[in-house]
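Q: Hi! First time doing this. I have a protein sequence and I read that you can turn it into a structure. Is that right? Here it is:
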Amino acid sequence: MALSAAARAALEQFKARRPGEELEEAGEFEEAEELDEVQTRLRSIREQARNRGVTQGDDRLPTLPQETALQERMPAPKSTGAVMLDRLSAGNNGLFRPEQPKTLKESGISYRVLESLILKTIKQEGALNEEQLSENLRLAMTVFREVLHSLHKRELLDTPLPLHYDLTNKGRELTALIEREDAYVGPAPVSFNAYCTMVQQQARRERRASQSDVDEVFSSYPMRPELKRLLKEGFNSQRVMLFYGPPGNGKSLITDNLHHLLRDPVVLPYAFEFNAKIVQLYDPAYHSMRDDLMRKEEDSRSANLSTSDKPDRRWVISSPPLVTVGTEFKVSHFEISFDGQYTAPPHVKANNGIFIFDDLGRQTEDHNMILNQFIYPLEQRESIIRFAGGSTIRAPFLQRLFLSTNLNHEELIDDAFKRRLLYQLLVDRPITPLWRDIFRNEAVKVGCTEKKAQALFDLLVKWYKDDARLIRACDPRNLFTMIDATLEEGERAGDVLTEDRFRLVYEHYPAANRSDVKYYVGAIDSAPDPQAAEQAEIQALGL
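A: Yes, that's right. Below is the predicted 3D structure, encoded as structure tokens:
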């Protein structure tokens, strides 16, 4: 694209701007804002004190600074990028977002990034006033006002309407060039250091799960007591856990539901900045935003007219992330990808949550090459991440990693990684009494009585034995899904299900056969005598 002379000059000025230069330009404005803030807060304190009966002259009543004192240089405010632990320990579930910044310095954003973000936002949204820009950037107007005025002064912005800013022709040409490097438009980023600090602090305050917590989460899923015990211990260890065993017996159900043991919500930013690059972190596919908690926090401070003590809206409150990858996962997915804008890799999005690597061994790339990428992060609790085709960063690796496979894990994983697997959990097919409980739960859901559920179960066990089928934990649910498909409008399975209809569904159901049994360490069907092994387990459990 051919550039006009004015646009070329603007681009050179934009690239040549030195860090700190913009702060000198805005210094007087920021200092005046800080001094005005002090006066406002002191007046508020005095008014509250008078309402409580504190009279003039009382030592408890603060004195407003005199004019001479206001001319003295105030100490630089502490950065709000690093979230204080006492902030995290207050409020609902011990969670607060950081306090919103009042100046560009406090925000932790580089001048160049904020300039480019303002230009891209106005290009996308059209002419905006300061309040509308504030809403788009999730920043107080005092943070970007001087940057906005500077862009206007350099003729990159115009004011077609009073107090509204739009791009000039020179501004549009410059914005088009900026978008080639990074097309991100959205809430302003936080600093990378602020993000790392938040992840580390939240990891330190995680609560341990009790056995009753695990029992509660899996109360609707009958399973072996020994497995529940190991789930609790493995979860609290925060070490990598491997789930293996025959397909259809609840590995995915277990890994997904362990997420419910993370009781506290987490705080994360929409994006962070590193070396003048904006990396998008928030992903609605993995982060379930807690609008209720954010609304409550903002409403509790809405009466405060000051910009102080309000939440930084560049951060969101979310349920702990649950990130699942499968056969599509590749080594390149450990990098910060670029498709017009930079996006954090899945394992970074999983910080303070759970990362599930499902279907291990079925990836299109060598799965051991992928697993090797986890060795350093598991040892050091940090990961070295490359920008696509560029520099690297060190980010926290503070999450629970769950691996899941229905292949023989003894042949699947090399020794270098295997020694790090302190918890290798077999999720075997259920023994008959547990399968009965699973079947009964599904039957009751569709309106069957306990008596009818037992009668149907007895039939099913007989048919499975006659046809040499293998029972799987998923079979009852899948059978009743097929039964539901046979019903007419308004019918319930519990009212109309007969033995003939049940048999018809059974014959079409794609079950597993004993002839297809694969070897898994410790599995019932891998024993020399599977029936004897099952009976021994039933007796040991007293079922």
